[in-house]
Automatic annotation (TrEMBL):
Glycosyl transferase family domain residues: 95-336
Protein name as catalogued: Anthranilate phosphoribosyltransferase family protein
Record key words, sorted: Amino-acid biosynthesis, Aromatic amino acid biosynthesis, Glycosyltransferase, Transferase
SUPFAM superfamilies: Nucleoside phosphorylase/phosphoribosyltransferase catalytic domain, Nucleoside phosphorylase/phosphoribosyltransferase N-terminal domain
Keyword Chaperone recorded: no
A Pfam family the protein falls into: Glycos_transf_3
Domain named Glycosyl transferase family 3 N-terminal: residues: 6-68
Cellular component per GO, a single term: cytosol
């Protein structure tokens, strides 16, 4: 048993009236002790459920990110004129709507904007579809790549993926606790704002509840992040909804002053409203994705134009959202996005063959 960890656990776990928030340094210490297994399984499980009940603060999330920074993987920086966009999604996946972010990433990559994603396999408590399964369905398996290979692939194709079981086994070792405690721990919020990249990047973090957005803002500001985006997205992801207002926060720090630009966008105003693409199963989703890449019209294409058009507008210097949507359609209709996927497969296959020959 770790007596130092026990003191941290006592601080957050003593009840509604007497529990106290951890300082940033204490949160970093607690996260480090969990990642390194200095704390016992009983202590780790107790901490995760107690922290969920108490609710994390921005300072605590900043401290936990400090620990991830110290112990976690970092893809080496690539030679890029613009920051790498980190498109996040809850690690426990999706089960109501089709994830759009890998198609969005392909569109951005085809436009010259580098994108890095991260995640693992199916995960408690939701056990929804993870991004890695969708990538595999499209013929790309990131699980066997080293960080050096991911850097090379990212530089060549503008696409990369950090796979938790391979690249961050210490964090992967905490996954079973999610099933055992039966609730999402604060780690789920931490993962939405973590950046496993060593160079300039722009984090796009999804959220569901407004207090989570506030925590994200506080944590990243304390970490010295000067620009990031929050999205009240589908199932906590950074996918913009079509059926309701897309609520977006554009955060920046200029001359030491933090500012927020709040966007409220309606897909129907751009002819892209309708139902969010519903999740059925992996096979049907891959078929729909491949149809979109082939230039065919379906419900998923509308959702993709809405999402990729927005992100092209924000991160590829288009004058307005309409221009971003038009460029997304052009990239899809010309076959450039499909070609981007084909090129990604070729580059990944080359790196895999080199790995097997060692």
């Amino acid at each position: 048993m770790s007596r130092a960890f026990r003191e941290l656990l006592k601080k957050i776990g003593s009840g509604a009236h007497t529990s106290k928030d951890l300082t940033r340094a204490e949160a970093a210490q607690a996260m480090t002790m969990m990642l390194t297994q200095a704390a016992t399984p009983a202590q780790i499980g107790a901490f995760l459920i107690a922290h969920r009940i108490k609710r994390p603060t921005g300072a605590e999330l900043a401290g936990m990110l400090d620990a991830y920074e110290q112990l976690g993987p970092k893809v080496p920086a690539i030679n890029s004129a613009q920051p790498v966009v980190i498109l996040s999604q809850p690690y426990d996946g999706r089960d109501r709507t089709i994830p759009l972010s890998i198609l969005t990433a392909l569109v951005l990559a085809a436009a010259g904007c580098p994108v890095l994603q991260h995640g693992g396999e199916r995960m408690p408590t939701k056990e929804g579809i993870p991004l890695i399964d969708l990538w595999r369905g499209l013929g790309v398996d990131w699980s066997g790549c080293s960080l050096a290979q991911i850097q090379q692939i990212l530089e060549a194709t503008n696409l990369g993926f950090v796979y938790l079981p391979t690249h961050f086994p210490q964090a992967q070792a905490l996954v079973p606790y999610r099933e055992q405690i039966g609730k999402r721990p604060p780690l789920a919020t931490l993962e939405l704002i973590w950046s496993p990249y060593a160079g300039p990047c722009h984090v796009v973090a999804g959220f569901v509840h407004p207090p989570t957005e506030t925590m994200i803002q506080e944590a990243l500001t304390l970490r010295g992040v000067t620009e990031f985006t929050t999205v009240k997205g589908l199932e906590g992801s950074c996918d913009l909804p079509q059926e309701r207002t897309a609520i977006i926060g554009l955060y920046s720090v200029v001359d030491g002053e933090a500012s927020l630009t709040r966007l409220r966008l309606h897909a129907s105003d751009y002819g892209l409203g309708g139902k969010n693409p519903a999740w059925a199963n992996l096979n049907d989703s891959i078929v729909a994705m491949e149809a979109v890449l082939d230039g065919r019209f379906n419900q998923l294409r509308q959702a993709l134009l809405w999402n990729s058009g927005f992100y092209l507008w924000q991160y590829n210097d288009f004058e307005n959202l309409t221009e971003g949507i038009q460029q997304a359609a052009k990239l899809l209709d010309s076959g450039q996005v499909k070609q981007q996927l084909k090129y990604l497969k070729q580059v990944c296959d080359t790196h895999f063959q080199k790995f097997c020959s060692l």
